TrEMBL record:
Classification via Gene3D superfamilies: Ribonuclease P, Pop5 subunit
Protein name per its UniProtKB record: Uncharacterized protein
InterPro entries: Pop5/Rpp14/Rnp2-like, Rnp2-like_sf
Species for this entry: Staurois parvus
Keywords from the named record: tRNA processing
Family affiliation: Belongs to the eukaryotic/archaeal RNase P protein component 2 family.
A Pfam family annotated for this UniProt entry: RNase_P_Rpp14
């Protein structure tokens, strides 16, 4: 039996965006679990934390990708608006979390790439930055990173063709 998951694409909004660089995946995960426990009690906390994980956190754009089991995703979804601050290394940062998209893996990855690229591609000039975007895009489309398909997309990326994705 396969366990289905729901992916939450969220945006972390802080008063001072420079403070996002101090946050880690563990900090976000801890505060999300804390919010679920506060709202839904022990049952909600246990149900959500079985397979809850932070799959992606971009400290520069504030994009977060959370994964939890499909059976209990409503607990997580209803708890996200109640996260009003994050604490890391003894400092408390007032914030809120916007939920941008909820869905399966493929659709969320497409929306993630669109949202993340729309914020990063304009300022992306280094080879490393373009390569990280390419790897993310290739994974979403089901390509292997070492395959020849990725080099085809990389040539298109250099030509400026592959950097425009439709919004899903």
């Amino acid at each position: 039996m396969r366990l289905k998951s729901r992916y939450f694409l969220c945006e972390l909004v802080l008063e001072d965006p420079r403070r996002r660089q101090n946050l880690s995946q563990g900090t976000v995960l801890h505060h999300v679990k804390e919010a679920v426990a506060r709202l839904h009690g022990d049952f909600g906390a246990a149900a959500v934390s079985i397979a809850l994980s932070v799959k992606y956190l971009n400290a520069y754009t504030g994009i977060i990708l959370l994964r939890c089991r499909k059976d209990y995703h409503q607990f997580l979804w209803s708890s996200l608006p109640f996260i009003t601050s994050l604490e890391n290394r003894g400092q408390r940062y007032p914030c809120f979390i916007n939920t941008l998209h909820v869905g399966g893996k493929k659709t969320v990855y497409l929306v993630l790439i669109h949202k993340d690229m729309s914020k990063r591609v304009i300022t992306c000039v280094s080879f490393r930055c373009k390569l990280s975007i390419l790897y993310l895009w290739a994974e979403c489309l089901g390509y292997t990173v070492s395959g020849h398909h990725v080099t085809d997309h990389w040539q298109m990326c250099n030509a400026g063709i592959a950097l425009t994705l439709p919004y899903y």
